[in-house]
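WARN no homologs supplied; continuing
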Amino acid sequence: MIDTVNNVDLDEALSDLQPETSSSAADKSPSDSQSNTRVANDQTRKAGIMIVDDESYNVLVVRKFLQHAGYENFVTTTESPQAIDLMKRDLPDVVLLDIMMPDVSGIDILRVMKITPELSTIPVIILTASPDPALKTQALELGATDFLAKPVDPSELVLRVRNVLAAKSNFDMLARYSVDLERQVQERTRALEASRRHIIFCLARASEFRDNDTGHHVIRVGKYAGAIARELGYSPSQVEGLEQAAQLHDVGKIGIPDEILHKPGKLSPDQYNFIKKHTGFGKQIIECMSEGEWQNLKGHTKLGGKLLAVKSEPIMRMASRIALTHHEWWNGEGYPLGLAGEDIPIEGRITAVADVFDALSCKRPYKKPFPRQKCFDMLEEKRGTQFDGRVLDAFFSCKDEIIDIQIRYADLEQTNYADPN
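OK structure emitted
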């Protein structure tokens, strides 16, 4: 059976959609003029409308009705198997879809649209002569937006299409806004991350300028720590965080007097005990303030409250733990807390191996650099006493990467500091 407009003559229906004469328009109120669906704007003319019906006459009727309402951009087909490909090609703003079609039904098309990302948000108005409520329920479950009963009433058709397109326009606007907002957030996040990396490096470099014979020590220790963490199965983001945090392991040297820090000979017992305090100094420099200090500072001005919206963040908390515990020993004989075994934070155990290897392999005021293999042997001798055996295994497993880092960031005469990021 062919669905048509039945007793409504097409020309008569179309004429009813024509603009009012000047005399009749004068009788309309302003609100009537504003709601006149026959006046097309630019958005209406550009809206893409797809009509899918196996009866060409039905396609012609619906298209004519919408053309007289000002719509101009149409894609039509009477071959339902082609509908999905046409949608993917043209991405219409709305689809007017017949349900009862041979080969591929409207329900089949809805099912495919629902699982196709680029089509799943396109609104669909169902055109059907079927009174079956179960069919309507199924169509709604598959994402149908609205229904129009055949024979199609031209005024109702225009209003429903207009409303659906308005909703689609709002949805698209929100989607574009969401994408733009996400882009801005990502750009801001990248800028903040770059700023944080630079600040961490500058703070680490400040400590190294207090101990000017250690060159690129902080960079190498960070890179060594990252290589060990990677071998231990850390994620890329965790590796990056540890590389940055480990660079601050000796920031507490800022608090050590020059006569101790730069002494070329052996330290006295009192001097050695004082230099051990650099771990505590480092923690104090990095860690967040007490709650009382925080509240006082935040209350200083409204601007201060905005600038200090976040008290601390994971990398700085990790850096604080590293600064405090990278001289702890696996057997509990280290300092400053005398922690042992798993009680020592893993990042502290990792940085301990990285720090000692770099100290052994580099020139210091009190010694020449040891050959690489001797450094490896000396680390191995401390397995189970100073160092966690699992961390040491990871260090030796990535030995090639360790050597590459050692060469790449070697201290050369008159080498300028460079941000490693």
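The chain has a mean pLDDT of 79.
OK
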